[in-house]
Automatic annotation (TrEMBL):
Keyword hit for rRNA-binding: no
Keyword terms of this UniProt record: Carbohydrate metabolism, Cobalt, Isomerase, Manganese, Metal-binding, Zinc
Alphabetized InterPro entries for the sequence: Aldolase_TIM, Ribul_P_3_epim, Ribul_P_3_epim-like, RibuloseP-bd_barrel
Active-site residue list: 39, 176
Residues given in the record as a divalent metal cation binding sites: 37, 39, 71, 176
Family: Belongs to the ribulose-phosphate 3-epimerase family.
Annotated GO biological process: carbohydrate metabolic process; pentose-phosphate shunt
Pfam families with a match to the protein in the record: Ribul_P_3_epim
Cofactor binding, note field: Binds 1 divalent metal cation per subunit.
Pathway in which the depicted protein is active: Carbohydrate degradation; pentose phosphate pathway; D-xylulose 5-phosphate from D-ribulose 5-phosphate (non-oxidative stage): step 1/1
Coiled coil: none
Catalytic reaction(s) noted: D-ribulose 5-phosphate = D-xylulose 5-phosphate
The name this protein goes by in its record: Ribulose-phosphate 3-epimerase
């Protein structure tokens, strides 16, 4: 896999102290994070609220270089493409369940200068996303029901990851939800190379060690 997908760890700051979003983000970057996974929730697509593009724009001013992976858990993903691009987002990951016109949304995201991520809720069959794999930079397999951090990892999502990796050997495949050192080997073996980990990293007294453990496990399957 010399030029294929790389092992990357993206902490989710959802369960960190959000009154100190910048400090918490910096801590993750200084602990070896390859990117930041930022969870946007609108209270419609999921039963919870977090933050939107004004907060992302402020964070970008203080963190000019890191890759921002926007996990858009919103009912109308078309609506926020321009605003998120303007705020400095690098990747716009929308949920396939929320989009009325997937190819058109992928085109708009690319035209706005961002990478395209397409996410699948646990109940969504993997076949739904297969026609759109060639349009995506990244495919996200949720390993919890989206809406809250700190939930239990759903190992029964691994066949979806395996199928996507078999179909799209060069696309980034991300897992998100309950991912920790206890289940990282399953994720990597199934074919996930972009790893979101929230609680396991941000709640640890030694986040750098957790990030390093996760990365080493994924690098066994996706060597540099
Ligand atoms: O999208 C999410 C929830 O909808 C979060 O990214 C995810 O839950 C990460 O947190 P944890 O590792 O604690 O589950
Ligand atoms: Fe997420």
């Amino acid at each position: 896999m010399a030029c294929g997908p790389k092992a990357m760890i993206g902490p989710s700051i959802l369960n960190s102290d959000l009154s100190m979003l910048y400090d918490e983000s910096e801590k993750m970057i200084n602990s070896g994070a390859d990117y930041l996974h930022l969870d946007v929730m609108d209270g419609h697509f999921v039963p919870n609220l977090t933050f939107g593009h004004p907060v992302v724009k402020c964070l970008r001013q203080k963190i000019p270089k890191s890759f921002f992976d926007m996990h858009m858990m919103v009912a109308n993903p078309e609506k926020w493409v321009e605003a998120m691009a303007d705020a400095g987002a690098n990747q716009y990951t929308f949920h396939i369940e929320a989009s009325k016109d997937v190819p058109d949304l992928c085109r708009k995201i690319k035209e706005a200068g961002m990478k395209v991520g397409i996410g699948l809720k646990p109940g969504t069959d993997v076949s739904v996303v297969l026609p759109y794999g060639p349009l995506a930079d990244m495919l996200l397999v949720m390993t919890v029901e989206p809406g809250f951090g700190g939930q239990k990892f759903m190992a029964d999502m691994m066949p979806k990851v395996e199928r996507l990796r078999a179909e799209f050997p060069l696309v980034n495949i991300e897992v998100d939800g309950g991912v920790s050192p206890a289940n990282i080997d399953q994720c990597a073996k199934a074919g996930a190379n972009m790893i979101v980990s929230g609680s396991a990293v941000v709640k640890s007294p030694q986040p750098a060690e957790v990030i390093s453990q996760l990365k080493q496990a994924v690098q066994k399957v996706f060597p540099e």
